[in-house]
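Write out structure tokens for 4-hydroxybenzoate 3-monooxygenase.
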Amino acid sequence: ERTQVAIVGAGPAGLLLAHLLHLRGIDTVVLERQSREYVEQRIRAGVLEQGSVDLLTRAGLADRLHRERLVHNGVELLFDGEGHRVPLTELTGRELTIYGQHELVKDLVAARLATGRPLLFEAPAVSVEDVTGSPVVRYTHNGVERELHCDVVAGCDGFHGVCRPAVAQALTVYEHVYPFAWLGVLAEVAPSAEELIYASHDRGFALHSMRSLAVTRLYLQVPPTDEVAAWPDARVWTELRTRLGRTAGFTLNEGPIIDRSVTALRSFVTEPMRHGRLFLTGDAAHIVPATGAKGLNLAVVDVAVLAAALERWFAEGDESGLEAYSATCLSRIWRVQHFSWWMTTMLHLTPEADPFARRLQLAQLRYLTGSTASATSFAENYVGLPFPEGA
Ligand code: FAD
Ligand code: DHB
């Protein structure tokens, strides 16, 4: 079995890369460990930058997205019992899209299947070998062990995949783990506000988001050791009411909770993002703490840069794009890493932080929402920095 590009992982990165390469006439095989149902129902991100939406639109992948998305033009920062709106579009000319990652994954799976090119579910890659020579991906499917030979391996298999470990000796890792996690719940109830609310409260961070006009997405900062069992419905709603409460005029709409999970917050970068003919993309190469809503958007940029570089290499033998891939992505990734760390640090309660640190957070929040210069800096990062040239 042989292909031009073996794509390991059918998350947003792998599926989008497969489609961008299909549009350029490049042959790929996509291998995914989980079932189709599993990847289409996994609740994760919900915020897309305008740059990501533009790219999906140009690739012909955004018809349903344009029909069903919510467009947001601002976000609210809540502290001291009062909301402070940052008018993102007024400050930057850019808008945000609310559209569930699992809905995007459904669209990408459908687009892939429509091309007739291979996408194998329940087909875990078990090893990646000879990436500095003739790469081979070994995987299992229907109980049979198989070998996929290829020119290039795209490691799109997320943080817990096999591609990064396969070349670990050639990589340097930079990592920071935070002393808190997020409990995320999905509730069948109309959102309680038109926009996202990021709340900095003395009991910890909370976030009000949404998936549609009928489904609310909410997050609470919790200790990283907490399991979902520690958070029955009543406790979730009480804590959300407290942290999202304000001095005047806010009622939190409550409804049935239909999904509940705990996610650790982590900052992680691999350098470089390439070894030989193996290219790492998305969560396989880097993780940001969820606070800035950047993870999915970073994955989109990586695969856009990689697709353009692979096109030049296959068509003209021009290796320069592949040589530049890692540095091109990493320069923007480190900027986004800083933004995500900064926003996380500003909004969360660090367990052993002293009252001085809390005062600094509040001073930062007042400056951010009170100064147009500061709000503009926040806004240009939050709506998404320009994509690298050629992506
Ligand atoms: P993944 O989505 O992890 O996909 C990797 C795929 O590879 C998976 O399907 C996995 O099953 C498969 N795989 C793994 N190992 C193997 C193997 N050995 N063989 C074959 N397949 C394998 N980002 C944002 O931009 N905005 C947000 O609002 C946001 N909110 C988030 C909220 C939460 C609660 C979480 C958890 C994440 C959030 N993120 C957000 C981050 C975002 O979800 C990820 O960055 C994104 O999923 C990365 O896509 P990916 O394709 O690189 O990795
Ligand atoms: C969502 C997730 C985020 O990490 C964020 O910053 C904003 C919204 C969400 O899932 O809706």
